[in-house]
Each structure stands twice: as structure tokens, then as C-alpha cells.
Specification:
133 residues
């Protein structure tokens, strides 16, 4: 479970950093309705909750097809939840959706390709512990 919490914190930090940089880059070239404080207080906790939920469930359920179904479920929630603001804030919504979907997709690819890496690390630690006992 510690891997799920750490992955969630890393994803959330990357999400905040990337969105912050892109938000201010866009604001430098284009005047749009931007309120960074509202973004931080509304979007980050909700996205963080989705990340923690997804990563903890992935740690509990270690089957490939269930990870795929959970990923699709989280994507639907994310796109519907954040996409509803498109008419009011089109540029902000596109920025937030793009950043969030990229982070979710990168973690999904990592889960599919390197899921056995975690078990190798845990098994290696137990082998090393046995050697020193």
C-alpha cells in the first residue's frame, strides 16, 4: 500500500507543477479567465482523491484486466467531472484535462509494463534479509 500512496503523491506533485507552469505560460500570451487559487482549492483535492483511490485499489487488486477497467472508470469520471466547465472556461478546461489525462495515462502505462518490478524489489529485499540472518 505504501507504493500506492507514494505514487499518488508523486503524481499529484507532477500535476500541480506541470499545470502551474503551463497555466502561467498561457496567461503570459493570452488573457483568459484565470484564477489560480480556485484551481488549487477545488481541482487539486478532487484530482488527489481520484489518484489515491485509483492507486490504492490498484495495489489491492493486482490483475491486469481489473487495472484496465479501473483506468477506464477513472478516465470517465475525470473527463465528465472536469469537462463540464468547457463552455465557461475553455482554455482552463483544456489545460486541466490535458495535464490530468497525461498523468493518468503515464501511470497506467507504468502499471501495465512494470507491475512485476514492485514484486521483484520486495522479493530482493527479503532475499537480502535472509542472507544477513
Amino acid at each position: 500500500m505504501i507504493f500506492g500512496v507514494l505514487a499518488s503523491l508523486l503524481q499529484l506533485a507532477f500535476y500541480i507543477t506541470t499545470t502551474f507552469m503551463l497555466w502561467h505560460l498561457i496567461a503570459a500570451f493570452y488573457k483568459f479567465r484565470s484564477d489560480w487559487e480556485t484551481f488549487v482549492w477545488l481541482t487539486v483535492p478532487l484530482f488527489g482523491f481520484l489518484l489515491f483511490f485509483q492507486n490504492l485499489i490498484i495495489e489491492i487488486i493486482n490483475k491486469k484486466w481489473k487495472v484496465i477497467l479501473l483506468f477506464i472508470f477513472i478516465l470517465i469520471i475525470y473527463v465528465v467531472g472536469w469537462g463540464e466547465d468547457y463552455k465557461g472556461w475553455p482554455i482552463n478546461t483544456i489545460l486541466i484535462l490535458t495535464t490530468g489525462l497525461t498523468i493518468l495515462l503515464l501511470k497506467f502505462i507504468f502499471d501495465l509494463n512494470f507491475k512485476n518490478l514492485k514484486s521483484k524489489i520486495v522479493n530482493l529485499q527479503s532475499k537480502i534479509k535472509c542472507l544477513y540472518e
